Structure of WASH complex subunit 3:
Amino acid sequence: MDEDGLPIVGSGIDLTKVPAIQQKRTVAFLNQFVVHTVQFLNRFSTVCEEKLSALSLRIQQIETTLNILDAKLSSIPGLEDVKLEVSSANVNSVKNGPVAQAAADQQTAGSPQSGQNNTQEEGVQKTEVVTENVTTVAKDPRYARYLKMVQV
């Protein structure tokens, strides 16, 4: 034993003469560990759930604001004919990320003139696809009552 009354554990100790740890004490330590771990996990899951619900609420508010903004923009006469012109580099970087941009750069490096023509044609095709697939609020039947009320 050392000065604190703790047994000195080393290579000179015969473990067959050391008394066994009490089972009740081991079970108590194990139970305490399990209880504290479960309490921690419960608190953690509660905090995560609260944050996810707050984030979901914020997303719903943003979607509602976006729908209102879309309705206001669609109520302005003369904006139905306006088309958005997007360059092919912006379309690639936004739609497909940097990998597609690198692939487009490699194509243009291989054949500069044909690559530029291809990317311009792709840009025109993508803007046409974007304008065809867009459903405006003015055409959406869910907002028909609201738009009729705005006109009145």
The two ends are 94 Å apart (CA to CA). The chain has a mean pLDDT of 73. The CA atoms of residues 60 and 115 lie 42 Å apart.
